[in-house]
Specification:
Layout lengths: L3 E10 L2 E11 L4 E6 L5 H8 L7 E6 L8 E4 L4 H4 L5 H6 L10 H13 L15 H15 L3 E5 L7 H16 L3 E5 L3 H7 L2 E6 L1 E7 H6 L1 H9 L9
Parallel strand pairs: 3-7, 3-8, 5-6, 6-7
Antiparallel strand pairs: 1-2, 1-4, 8-9
Length: 236
């Protein structure tokens, strides 16, 4: 059974149709990358999967006992969020959703995720004093505290240098190989094809949904890789 099934989904952004007639599945263990030009509805779709955006029509169904509250989410950060005055441990623990009273098992889970992402020695450090790459690892550890099944990642390497980006991609790949399903919005098409199992290409209506190797050989895939995502415009 699919973790997520979308059928004939229609989503609006600022009164305009952002996604229309979209149907696709996310299977357990999948690594799905969502690509497309700016304003093509990628972030709107992520908000809908999280239950933060109500569809105009169509349906989103969750399988394998998955609840929206059990989805780990790594959003794009605002400048204010990057300056958040809390310790690494406090930020990671907040992913357990039981603040301010965390159980012993939740504290263990936070400690395990900090260890997994190489953050144990930084647990008392102030989040806003970390580098961009360290902050993203903290937010990823936080997202893991919310889920053992599914991570939604919205442009996780934006603003990071190539070496730090490569390390974060390696961590995401390792998590996926351990059984965590990954759905990632990205402008990095080369990364998507190299790492993902499936690709969803949006431009209001879906232009492609299928295996990454088939996307590489498709007309839309070849065209998008040659030109790169279009610049400018608000992200829907």
């Amino acid at each position: 059974m699919a973790l997520i099934s979308c059928r004939d989904l229609c989503l609006a952004y600022e009164g305009k149709i952002a996604v229309d007639r979209l149907s696709f599945d996310v299977s357990p263990g999948d690594y799905l990358c969502i690509v497309g030009e700016n304003g093509s509805g990628k972030s709107t779709l992520i908000r809908a999967l999280l239950g933060l955006k109500k569809p105009r029509s169509g349906s989103i169904q969750y399988g394998d006992g998955l609840k929206q509250s059990e989805i780990g989410y790594l959003p794009q950060q605002t400048p204010a969020q990057k300056d958040f005055p809390a310790s690494v441990r406090e930020v990671v623990l907040s992913g357990c959703r039981a603040a301010p009273f965390y159980s012993a098992s939740e504290k263990r889970r936070a400690a395990e995720n900090m260890e997994k992402l190489g953050l144990t020695e930084l647990k008392k450090a102030c989040y806003r004093e970390l580098s961009g790459g360290q902050q993203q690892r903290v937010l990823l550890a936080r997202a893991l505290c919310a889920t053992r099944k599914l991570l939604l990642l919205d442009e996780p390497v934006t603003g990071l240098d190539p070496a730090v980006s490569a390390e974060l991609y390696r961590i995401i790949r390792d998590l996926n190989e351990e059984g965590v399903t990954v759905v990632m919005v990205t402008h990095d098409v080369d990364c998507a094809i190299e790492r993902a199992r499936t690709i969803l290409h949006l431009r209001t209506v879906p232009l492609f949904w299928g295996r990454a190797e088939d996307y590489r050989e498709s007309e839309i895939g070849r065209s998008f890789m040659a030109s790169g995502p279009e610049k400018g415009g608000d992200e829907a």
